[in-house]
């Protein structure tokens, strides 16, 4: 909860100030480069700190009989405005020890002047300065809230510098560079705010002036070399020395501008006539300016430049993190009172929500009453039959930020009916408490009288889609509710839509509601039988998936037309030559096993689609048998048989057996399997593969039948072959 407050504050401040901060950081980088550049010419004299003013002026007087002023800038370059022995005017950098002319003073380029003005006031005078001042102050608050977030993330100040585990690049970069540039950015923010306050005169600056009366012994004249104030003053403390206009006139003075005060000095005897002390605010202003601009130190200027550049990346990575966290938009159709499947998500950075939403969308598309909520929204779910808990783990094995209330609420709202639950933990093995919060929740749920475990807790390390799919398979099998298992569905990387031309579509009839659709990819694309095609009938977020069978470089779908079917209705109205936009979702765990010694393909209904493609592409003539179950023997099953006849003649298919459940002597595909029990035992024992595609019900029945046969003859259960990768499924 506390983390969210800081996080929202951090985000809100960043949102408000990002445009200005972006502008300030980009211009800041340019000005930092200029500050570094400025120091490049070799005008700096090494021992400037050891020279005093009396030596310097005495020496320079020999080279320049008439001096108007001497200045020492922030780079400690000494410049002079004077007339030399030949009567030439000299303006530029000199060596203060020898008077040697080193080079002309250069004005800032137009571009740097423009950038400076933009950086200081956005060309908006006082209004601009106020905006910039506020942006600097917001940067200060952002830095502080960021600091708190890093401390919380690292589990305390003690671990502030401990290793940061990499979640995803933007976040890793944001945290690591946040830690690295914390101090320079804090300094930039504070000095920027201070300069703004001084410049708009929020802080008062009043000089303190002291006039010194002339002392008796000060009437005698002294040589400059003997002026005690000049002897005491080191050259590196000087900002400027203005020389008297008329030499010898006691009413004309030296004006000595130092960093903290200004002195008026008698030109005949060196007595201090007047002293103007600058207030603390003015000194602090100068100090802030030096710190803010890095103009006094090249290394500091480089650090500030990098820090400014980093702010640009901060803004970018910060928005990437926010986008990731908020990109998943939940659409709920059902209320808590009506939902039959409730998915509760515990998430900090949104990735678990993304996975949960992919499942939720499929369930809704399948007509299931699914509800997706954050774990803190746990309440009574009077119609719920299934409770799915997807949660990440944070901190020291604790709840993510939207699950902090869950345990309390779970105990406060005991459900009134029995509900099947399944917990899926998301975490990272880089942390010692891998998925600890998911384990804790799983245990807590198992202790509730109303909760009955449907499947054991599964874990997902580092957002592994394969591990998620393992849960999908198990949960689907046990709940008898279809979920797609193509990894691409759960991958956050969205592959672009591709165009397909409709080549042919068969028609449905009273006795047959299934049709085939042949599509030609327009342009190059990677697609294999067993992959899925995602279509978007309403060109919105709603997708429907169909198994692909590949044939002569084309994609064939077998679709059952449902009355008012969102996907099937859309596909059925397509006409030849029409162009369809769709996405191919690779499904590598259901590709034809090219190295298997023999393969059995088992399907029911439209599940035959990928197998038609696999047989057509079996150029290596791996021994293949096809077993398929349908309701009726009709035009479409006749088409399948025509196809398999051709394939048998080509040697790409050894045998085909069809079962019809609604014909006389109703038969199911399991009956065919039982009849060929011996073949299946040998197939699996000799490392052959079985592929299953169709309804989940058929998958369960087929697996139960095979299990029975196997146990009797080999004593091994089907699970051994499944784990060995010899039984591949894509059922829905
Ligand atoms: C600061 C931080 C602490 C984490 N602590 C743990 C932990 O203790 N145990 C664990 O298994 N995973 C831990 N993780 C990994 C996350 O749980 C994992 O990346 C998860 O997939 C994130 O899901 P989310 O994006 O839905 O929040 C941590 C990640 C971060 C960034």
UniProtKB/TrEMBL annotation:
Keywords: Flavoprotein, Membrane, Transmembrane, Transmembrane helix. Gene3D superfamilies: 3.40.50.360, Nucleotide-binding domain of ferredoxin-NADP reductase (FNR) module. The keyword Transmembrane applies. It is an enzyme of class 1 (oxidoreductase). The chain crosses the membrane at residues 130-151, 172-197, 298-323. This is NADPH--hemoprotein reductase. It holds the Pfam family NAD_binding_1. Its EC number is 1.6.2.4. Residues 341-480 form the Flavodoxin-like domain. One of its GO terms (molecular function) is FMN binding. PROSITE patterns: FLAVODOXIN_LIKE. GO terms for cellular component: cytosol. It comes from the Bacteria.
